[in-house]
Amino acid sequence: MTRPRNDTFLRALMREPVEYTPIWLMRQAGRYLPEYNETRRRAGSFLNLCKNPAAACEVTLQPLARFELDAAILFSDILTVPDAMGLGLYFAEGEGPKFERPLRQEWEIRNLAVPDPYAELRYVMDAVAEIRRALGNSVPLIGFSGSPFTLACYMVEGGGSDDFRRIKTLVYDRPDLAHHILEVTARAVTAYLNAQIESGAQAVMLFDTWGGTLPAWAYREFSLAYMQQVVQGLKREHAGERVPVIVFTKGGGQWLEQIAGIGCDAVGLDWTTDIAAARARVGDRVALQGNLDPMALFASPERIGDAARRILDDFGPGPGHVFNLGHGISQFTPPEHVNALVDCVHGHSRALRATSATAA
């Protein structure tokens, strides 16, 4: 495997020196882009788009045609894994993702099995391979999965939730069943990410969207422990190249040290965490990814630049920073504001490094 011509993102994740701070955006291929909406319209539905490798490749590349981003991320959905487990994923108009067969009975939980990523999830692996070919070794491709706990939330609740009553009741009342779901799901996520790596993903990320809703003890036992299991089971090298791993818990700023200790290469930060304090807390153990508030992109380009420069200045010189949002980009974001952000991050971070080198 040959390194991408622009490998700044990979080097930053491994805390190697870089000429500027690389940037990519969570949900960078999505509804804020008119070309994405047109491709989705042609596909007929979001699920059709996810399950068509050619269409998934098309939308993965769309933001890179507009913006000078330093990485592509596979276009897919975190719920493909429980769908492959037989829960029957569908999308209700205006209600988001739903499952036809959520895990409600003990026998359903006991029957849960790990899907074969090359069978039930073949369309994802085909998309990864097609995207890698289409990228032509220009920038790295990121693969991803939801964390075991985040997937379990949807699998038990049957969809999104305001209070996570069902999954938390299981955690408190039947921890044995919660652990069983998480154990099977962790094995499924590990196999899924390893298959993405074998198919061409050059870095992978775990999205722990709902781990931050747990109390500290439960986060460690029901979320962090299973992410550690996944990280320890991942292929960290493929075709002679290191494959970095990013872990992101939304609302997880209070547990940075513990997250940094599970063996990942980088920790994602949401916008509520001070990046200077985070860097001081984790030291040189991991890189940091983040952490602009997605709502900052609704401000004027000048103010977007102010917000981005503040984060870059707070992180300071030295290796180990990948710029990103603190969560997914809003569908209402003006695309030209993304251009302003990317240009600012690249320009200001180059200037910071030049100033630091002069001072040294």
Label this structure with key terms.
360 residues; alpha/beta; TIM Barrel; 2 domains; seven-stranded parallel sheet; two-stranded antiparallel sheet; 15 helices; 49% helix; globular
Could you walk me through the main structural features you see in this protein, from its secondary elements to its overall organization?
With 360 residues, the protein is of the alpha/beta class. It has 15 helices and eleven strands. Strands 1-4-5-8-9-10-11 form a seven-stranded parallel sheet. Strands 2-3 form a two-stranded antiparallel ribbon. A two-stranded antiparallel ribbon has the order 6-7. A hairpin with a 3-residue loop joins strand 2 and strand 3 (96-99). Helix 2 (34-43) packs antiparallel against helix 4 (53-66), helix 4 runs parallel beside helix 7 and helix 10 packs parallel to helix 11. The longest helix is centred in the middle third of the chain and has 25 residues, at 175-199. It is globular and about 65 Å long.
Q: Which helices and strands occur, and which strands form pairs?
A:
Blueprint: H1 8-13, H2 34-43, H3 46-50, H4 53-66, E1 72-73, H5 80-87, E2 89-92, E3 96-99, H6 106-110, H7 122-135, E4 141-146, H8 148-157, H9 165-173, H10 175-199, E5 203-208, H11 216-233, E6 237-238, E7 241-242, E8 245-249, H12 256-260, E9 266-268, H13 275-282, E10 287-289, H14 301-315, E11 321-322, H15 335-359
Helix pairs in contact: 2-4, 4-7, 8-10, 9-10, 10-11, 14-15
